[in-house]
Amino acid sequence: MATERTLSIIKPDATKRNLTGKVVAKFEEAGLRVVASKRIQLSTAQAGEFYAEHKERPFYAELVSFMVSEPVVVQVLEGEGAIAKNREVMGATDPAQAADGTIRKEFALSKGENSVHGSDSPEAAAREIAFFFSGLELVG
Ligand code: ATP
Ligand code: MG
């Protein structure tokens, strides 16, 4: 399997509870390497654009207001099969369905406040990394 890069967001429910380090440890234990990282405060326009694919879904407004409620930590993770591996470490969207040992099983509060985002395809990873980072910020 090829080395890939994927975008991760540590969401407001996790940054608020001071869980950034514990979440990053999960990525590192799974063999994912943090090659870019920054803590930012999203604007409503930015969060709305980032989640534009969910515009028609009933939870869209709630999702956008949650994502701007506290700072987030956006990161680029690199590793063998990083896109799928990250999704595996994250666990299912709903923490009640997430497997033992996953980030969402251990830390998520609900289906909405679920601690992490991860790109779900190579196309999404490329788009989402470029949304937050310039090439100069990807230091390997
Ligand atoms: P993400 O895209 O954040 O990595 P995901 O791919 O597991 O998560 P999606 O279906 O893409 O899940 O939904 C995006 C996000 O929208 C979820 O992570 C969650 O925060 C929120 N969300 C999804 N479904 C619901 C719901 N039924 N009620 C509230 N929020 C939801
Ligand atoms: Mg998704």
Describe the protein in words.
The chain is α+β, with helices and mostly antiparallel strands. The protein is built from seven helices and four strands, in the order βααβααβααβα. The chain has helices at 12-16, 20-29, 44-50, 60-67, 82-90, 103-107, 122-132, and strands at residues 3-10, 33-40, 72-80, 116-118. It has a four-stranded antiparallel beta sheet, sandwiched between helices. The chain starts with a strand and ends in an 8-residue tail after the last helix. The relative contact order is 0.26. Bound molecules: adenosine-5'-triphosphate (ATP) and magnesium ion.
Give the cofactors and ligands. adenosine-5'-triphosphate, magnesium ion
Give the helix tally.
7
What's the mean pLDDT score? Answer: 97
Residue share in helices? Answer: 25-40%
Query: How would a crystallographer describe the biggest sheet?
Result: 4 strands, antiparallel
Strand line-up across the major sheet? 2-3-1-4
Rg, Å, rounded: 14 Å
Large-scale geometry: globular
The separation of the N and C termini measures: 19 Å
Tell me the strand percentage band: 15-25%
| Residue windows where pLDDT falls under 50 for at least 5 positions | none
| Number of beta-strand segments | 4
Helices and strands, in order, run as EHHEHHEHHEH
SS content category: alpha+beta
